[in-house]
C-alpha cells in the first residue's frame, strides 16, 4: 500500500477556493499510475463534445466541475455518509480525446475505462456530451461479458434513430446504440424526465418496442418523484446497473449551462432526492454529462453538477 | 396555391443553430406579400418598448425569440400535435414601429394586424412591451365588431389608472384601456398570477368593479393551476377569446429577462401546463410579451419564451 | 418634529430607475443626525465581508440592494399593508467598516446599532456577511439586558466551532458565538433550511445540545413551510425575537449571488410565505445578509433580496 | 450660508463601495432646495432614453454612473486639481422625465436646467441619450439670450435630418435642431471622432454648409489628438462654449455599454487627454451621455464614464 | 431579371434591431434559388467548429454576425462607397454542415461554394472555424484551374503540421493544406499579425521554406500597418487573391469572443485600415472566421466582426 | 534526481482545456515535497484579498490563472525561448492563507516563500492582492540579508500612508512598508504607469523623498515604453531586483477583472514589451497580482495575466 492520503483537505484548513482543483480535492492518480489498483472509485473526465448537435461547450465540463468541486465538504449531511472515507476515491484525470476525430476520441475513452475496470475501479465519468457514456457502457459490457441495467435521468431519451444523414454516433443516440450493441438490457432500462419538443415519436417507439420503461415528465410530476424512483428500482434494480445523469434533466432555471436545455423540468431538490433513492442498488458505474460552462454565467450549473456527482458517489456506497 | 414549403426544415438536416432565424424556421411572408392569404396563423413581431415604465429592452424581444426559436422541433411530445403541419404558419416579420413616436408606432401595429385579419390570419403577436397587445385587441375589435373574452397570465393586472401624470398608454394600462374602448368583455376577462408590491389597490378595484376575474398568486398556489385554468375556461371560454401571456407571469428565476420582474411566481412546468389547458377554446389571437434580452445573460428567458409561444400555437389548434 | 417626508416618492412620478438610490427611496437619516430619534425602523447597511470563508462580495450587498430597492412600490398587495406609512422608516446609511481590520469593523458596527437602539429605532440590518449579524445581536443584548429569541432562515446553522485554526469570528460561527455570549436564548432559537455537505456534525450536535431547534431541509419539505413556520412561532415567539434571513436559504436558481450557495432549497414563493408567517411576533430587529452582487449576473438576487427585506419590514408591523 | 460639507467623504474613511451613492459622494441638493443657490457646479441626471434609435438602456445611465462614481478620489493626480474644493459641487438628483411622453420629458428637463441657471449653477448633465443635451442647450440659450459655441466628442455628428418618417427629435438630431433653434453658433461648433457606416452624407453636408467644423476619425488619428484639440479651442474657444461628450466617442473595447457603438475609436488615454485640453475655456455647461449599463457586463463603461465626468468638472475650473 | 430589391431597408425606416436578420438585411437567395445567377457577391455562412482545438462556439458565428449586422448602414463614410448599390449582394444562407462528421461537412461546404462560383458569385464566407476557409480555397482552385494569392490577417499562421496524432484537418492547418493541395501560391501568400506562444517553429519554418511572407506582430508594430499592407499588396497583389480575416488577428480586448485569443494585437482602428488598404486588388473571395458568440458577453466581437465584413465587401469593389 | 517530467504536456496531445489545471501544466510539487530542492523556479499561489480596499475577488486569482494557463504553449515565439526546458519550473500550490486573520495569513505566506528560498527556488508569486507581495519581499530580505531593487508596473504606487484609521497593511501600502522595513532599496526602486485620481500627493511625496523613481502614465506615454524600460534598467538593474506586476497597470479595456481599475493605461502589446525588456536583469523573484475573476466576464483578464506570467518567467532566464 502506498502512503496516499485519501481524505481531501478540509476547507477549514485550506480555503475552498484555494489549491490546484482536482475533483473534490481527491488525490490525482492516472489510470496508468502504479498506485491505480488501490483506487476503488475513480472519477475520470471526458472533455469532449464532438457529438453535440446543438450548443457546444461540454468539452469544458470537467474543468468547470473540478473548479466547482472544491466547494464540496466531507460529509453528506442528509445521509450521514462520509464517502471519501468509506471508499478510496481518486481523480484519474481526463482522457486525451481528439476534438477533431470522433473514432479516435471514442476509442481512447473506452480504452481508459477498460483500464480502470481491469483494476476493479468503479468509474464515475464526468462529461463531456452524452455520447461519452457509450464508451463507458462498451467497456463495462466487454469487462462483464453481459448486459446490465440502466437508469437514465434526462430530458431526452437519447434513443433517436440515425441523425444528420445517417449518423449513429451523436449525443442523441447513445442508448439506442447501447441496446443495439447489447451493452444494456432494455427490459432493465428505465428513463425518466423526458420532455420538450421532438422530431417525431421514433425514439419512444423504438424504446418501448424494445422494452424500455420511459416516463415523460408529466407522468413523473403526477406520480411524484419518490414513486418514480421506486419504479426505477423495480425495473432496473434487480442486478448490476449503470446510472447516467444528464444535467438537462433538471429545469434550465437551475441548470442553464447545457447544450440542449428543455424547460419544465424538476427542481434541484427533486433531482437530489432522485439520486439518493438509488442507494443500495448495485451501481457498477455512473456519470454526469452535458454541463457546458460557456452557457453558465452564474456558475450555478457547475455547482449543481458537482452536488449531483457527490450524491452519485454516495449512492454507490452502502 | 403557391409552392411554399410550410414545414420548417428539421434540426436533423440543418443544425438548429444554423440558417437565417425566422420564427421557428417558418416561411417568411410579409402581411403585404401576395401569398399572405394562404397563411392561417401568422407570427408578427412588435419590437417596441416605448410604453415601458421600468427597464427597457423588450424592443429586442422578437430578435431574441427568433434566435431561440430555431431550437424548437416539429412535434409537441406531450400532446402529440404537429402544429406546423396542422395549420399554415408563417413569420410575417416585424412591424416598423417608431421608437420615438408612440402614436405612430401604435397605429402602424394596429394597421398591420388589421391587414392580417382581413386575410383571416390569426395573429400570434411577439412583443415588445405589453402595450403592444392593445393594438391587437383594437384591430380584433374592429374586425369582429364586438368585444371578446381575454385570458391574461401575468404578474400584473395592467389595469392601472393613468400614470406619469395622466398617461393612459403605458405598459401598465392596456387592459383598462381595452375595457374602456370596448375591445374586451370584462365579464369574460380572466387574470391570474398577480403579485408583488403595488402602488395601491386601484387596479384590482377597477377590474373587480367592471367584473373582471382576478386571481392573485396566493389563490392560484392554494387552488392549484389545474383548478385555476378550469376557472379560466369557465369565465372566458364561452366564446371567442384572446390569450395574452406576459413572460413575467413566471418566476424570475426562470425568466429574468424582463422589465418588471416580480418574485414568487410559478415554475416553467406550471406555466406550460396552464397554456396546454387552453386547448379547445376559440382562440382568436394570442401574444407573448415583455421578453427583454439585455437582462437575460443565460438566454433562459428567450428559450422559455419560445417554448411558451410553441404551446400557444398548439393551443390554438384542435 | 421635523418636516421629513416619510413616504417614498412613487414610481409613477419619478420612474423607478431614477434618483439617488436610498433603500426603498426612504429618507436618508444618519444615526447621528439630529432627526434620528424620529425614526422608528432604521435600515442600516453593513458593507463588509471580512469573515467570509468562500466567495467574497457581500461588501457590495448594500449597494446592490439599494439599487434594486427602488423597484419596490408602496403597498404589500398580499397583506394590504403600507409599511412606510405605518411606521417612520429611514435609510440610515452604511457603517464605515474597515475592510482590513475585523475588530475595528465589528466594533464600529455594534456601536452604530447601539446608537440606533438608544433612540428606540428597530434595526433592519442589510449585510454584508453573516458575521455582521453578531454585532446587532450584541448591541441588542446590551441594550435589553437579557437574551432573546432567534429565528434563522438559512442553509447553514452558522453554529460551527472555531475555524481556520481557531477563529471564532467567521461567517460560519455567529450564532454559536451569540449563544456563548448570552445574546440569544438557545431554547428560543429556531433554524430552518439547513442542507448541503458539511464538515461534520459538530454544528448540529452543539446546537441540539444547547436546545436549539434545527430543521434540515428534508424535514421542512416534508412538513410543508406553513407547518415549519408554526413551529418557529411556537419555539421562538413567546417574547422578543430577532429574525435573521440569509439569502442562501433560497435555492441558488433564485439567488445565485451569494458566497456559499447550497442547492436544493425553497423557492422564492415559499421564502416569502415564511416571512409573512412571522407577522405578529415581537420582532426586535432583523437582517438580510450574504447577497453578493459580483456573483449575480442577472440581478435576480438583489431583487429577491429587497423583496424579502420589504416583507421583513411588513412583518415587523401589526 | 448653510453648513453643508462640500467635500466628499474619503474612501480611506468610508470604503469606496459603501454609502448611498450620490454622484462622486457630493452633497444631495435638489434644484428646488433652499440651499441650491450655494451650488456652483450641479450634476443633474437625465435618466431617459426615449429618443434612442437603436439599443436602449441610457435611462439607467445616471444610476450606473452614480454607483461607479464613488470610486473617484479627491485629487486629479495629473493636473493637481482638487475640483470639489475649488468649487461647490452637488448632486442635484435626476429629472423626473416621463418614459412614455417625449414632450413632457423634454420640458421637465429644460425647466430643471433653467432653474439651475437662474441660480448661477453651471450644469453638468448626466444622460440619458443624446437628445437630453438639447434640453440643456435650449435652457442655456434662453438664459443667455444668445448662441454659444459647442465642442462635441462623439462618433456621430447627431446632425441627421428628420428620421423615422419626419421626427426631428431623436438622439440622432439634437445638434441640427440646436442650430435650427439658434442655440449654438455653427461657426463656433467643433465635432471630432466621427466614424462608422452612415445612411448618407446629409449630416456632414448640412453641418459643413452651416459652417460646422467636423473631423472624421481618420483625420483625428492622422493629426494626433493634441492637434485636434488645438483646433477645437481655435474654432470654439473664443467665447462661452458647451462641451458634450458621448461615450461612444471612445472605442467600444473601452466602452461597450452604449446604444450605438462604432468600432475604430480612440483609447481611454486619448479621450482623457482630449478633455484635459479643454481647460481654460469658458465652459458654460457640459454633459456625458449615452452610457447604457445593461450592455456593460464588466462595468467598464460606467467607470470610464465617471472618469470622463471627473475630468470635465476639472476642465471647468481654472 | 427578377424584381429583387437589392438595397437593404434603412434603419431610419425599420429600426435596426427589427426584422428577420439576414446578413446586413440583404435579400435571402439560396445557392440553388433560380435567382442565384443574378447575385454578384454572396455571403455564405459556415456554422461549423468541428476542427477547433481549443474553445468551441464558432458554429454560432453566422447567427451572431447576422444579428449584429442589422446595425450596418448603407454607406461607408470613410470611402464614400455604397457597397450594396455597387454590386448585387445577397445572404445565401448557411451550409448544412454536419456537426458530427468532418468529411461530410467539408464536402457540403465546398460543393456550396462551387455552386456559387458556377454562377460567377464571389464568395464572402462567414465562419465558423478557420478550416472552413479550406473549403472555399478548394472550390476556387477547382473553378479557376490554378493557384492564387492569399492575404491572411490572423494571430496564427495556421500552417501547423499534423496535430492530435496526425490530423491534417484542424483549424491550425488550413493554409499548409492549401499549399500542399496547390490551392494557393506560397510565393504570393502574405501573413501578418502572428504572435503568442507556439508549440515550436515548425509553422514558420514550413511557410518560409515554401516562400510564404510571414510578419510577426512585432515587425508589424515596428513598421506600421500602412507599410505592412503595402508589402501585402506587393507580395500577393499581382493577380487574383483571396483574403482571409481571422477575428483573433485583433487584440482580445476588442474581440474576446473567439476560440484561441492571443494578447498583444492591433486595435480595431488599425484592423479596419488594413482591410481598406486591400481595395483595388483582384479579390476573388474573402472570409471572416472564428467569431465565437458564447465567449462574447458584451457582443463587441460580433459587432466588430460585421464591421470588418462590411469593409471586406467594400474592398472587393472598385 | 527524481523522475519528474518537467515538460508540460503539449496541447497537441492533451487538448488545452483538458486535465487538472496546474499552472501552465507544470508538475505539482509542494514546498515541503521531498523533490522540492530540484525546482529552480516555483510558482506559488496566494489566494488572498484580505487587504483589499475596494472590490474583492483576488482570492480567486490563482484559480482563474491556473485555468487560463493551460492555454500557454511551450515556446515564446518572439524570443525563441523554451522557458520550461531552460529551467525546472513547478506549480508549488497555494499557501493556506486565512481569509479571516491578516496576521496569520501574512505569516503563512512569508514562511512558505522562506521555505522555497531555502531550497534556492526563485519565487513567482501569483496573487492575491498586492499586500501579498510584501510577504515575498520580507522573505527575500531575510534570506539575502540586504535590500534589493524593485521594478513595479502598476497604476498605483502602493506607497500610501496608513489607511482606514492607521492601517499600514492594506494593498495600498506594501512598498512603503517594504521601504520602512528595509526590504527594498528606494534608490533602486522604479515605478511606472501611475494614474487615476488620488487622495492627495502623499504617496508621490514619500516615494520621491526616499529616492524612488516614479513615472506617471503621461510621462511614460510621452517617452515611449522602450525608453521607460531603459530607465527602469538603469535605475533598478545594477544588482538583484524584484519585479512586481499589478494587472491594473494595463488599461481596464484589456484587464477589467481587477479590484481598483484606472482608465488610461497601456495596451497589452505595450505591457508585454515592458516585461520582455527586463530580460537579462538579475531577477530574484517576481509576481503577478490583483487579478479578480469575479469581475472578468469575458475571461480576458486571466488570459492576459497568464500571458504576462509567461513573459515574466521568460525574462528570468538568460
From TrEMBL, chains A, B, C, D, E, F:
Cited InterPro entries: Agmatinase-rel (IPR005925), Ureohydrolase (IPR006035), Ureohydrolase_dom_sf (IPR023696), Ureohydrolase_Mn_BS (IPR020855)
PROSITE patterns, per database record: ARGINASE_1 (PS01053), ARGINASE_2 (PS51409)
This protein's UniProt keywords: Hydrolase, Metal-binding
One Pfam family it belongs to: Arginase
Source taxon at top rank: Bacteria
NCBIfam families: agmatinase
Record family assignment: Belongs to the arginase family. Agmatinase subfamily.
Protein name in UniProt: Agmatinase
Amino acid at each position: 500500500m502506498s502512503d496516499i492520503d485519501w481524505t481531501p483537505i478540509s476547507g477549514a484548513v485550506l480555503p475552498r477556493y484555494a489549491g490546484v482543483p482536482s475533483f473534490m480535492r481527491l488525490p490525482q492518480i492516472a489510470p496508468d499510475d502504479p498506485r491505480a489498483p488501490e483506487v476503488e472509485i475513480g472519477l475520470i473526465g471526458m472533455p469532449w463534445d464532438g457529438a453535440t448537435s446543438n450548443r457546444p461547450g461540454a468539452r469544458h465540463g470537467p474543468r468547470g466541475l473540478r473548479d466547482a468541486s472544491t466547494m464540496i465538504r466531507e460529509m453528506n449531511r442528509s445521509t450521514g455518509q462520509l464517502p471519501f472515507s468509506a471508499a478510496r476515491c481518486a481523480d484519474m484525470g481526463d482522457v486525451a480525446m481528439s476534438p477533431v476525430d470522433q473514432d479516435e476520441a471514442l476509442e481512447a475513452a473506452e480504452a481508459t475505462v477498460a483500464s480502470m475496470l481491469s483494476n476493479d475501479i468503479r468509474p464515475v465519468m464526468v462529461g463531456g456530451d452524452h455520447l461519452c457514456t457509450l464508451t463507458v457502457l462498451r467497456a463495462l459490457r466487454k469487462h462483464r461479458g453481459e448486459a446490465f441495467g440502466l437508469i437514465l435521468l434526462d430530458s431526452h431519451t437519447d434513443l433517436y434513430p440515425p441523425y444528420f444523414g445517417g449518423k449513429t454516433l451523436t449525443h442523441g443516440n447513445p442508448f439506442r446504440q447501447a441496446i443495439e450493441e447489447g451493452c444494456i438490457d432494455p427490459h432493465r432500462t428505465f428513463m425518466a424526465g423526458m420532455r420538450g419538443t421532438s422530431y417525431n415519436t421514433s425514439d419512444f417507439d423504438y424504446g418501448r418496442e424494445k422494452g424500455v420503461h420511459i416516463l415523460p415528465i408529466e407522468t413523473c410530476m403526477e406520480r411524484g418523484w419518490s414513486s418514480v424512483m421506486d419504479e426505477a428500482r423495480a425495473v432496473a434494480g434487480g442486478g448490476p446497473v449503470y446510472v447516467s445523469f444528464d444535467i438537462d434533466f433538471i429545469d434550465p432555471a437551475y441548470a442553464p449551462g447545457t447544450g440542449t436545455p428543455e424547460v419544465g423540468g424538476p427542481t434541484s431538490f427533486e433531482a437530489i432526492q432522485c439520486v439518493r433513492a438509488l442507494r443500495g442498488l448495485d451501481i457498477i458505474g455512473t456519470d454526469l454529462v452535458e454541463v457546458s460552462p460557456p452557457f453558465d454565467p452564474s456558475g450555478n450549473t457547475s455547482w449543481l453538477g458537482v452536488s449531483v456527482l457527490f450524491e452519485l458517489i454516495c449512492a454507490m456506497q452502502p
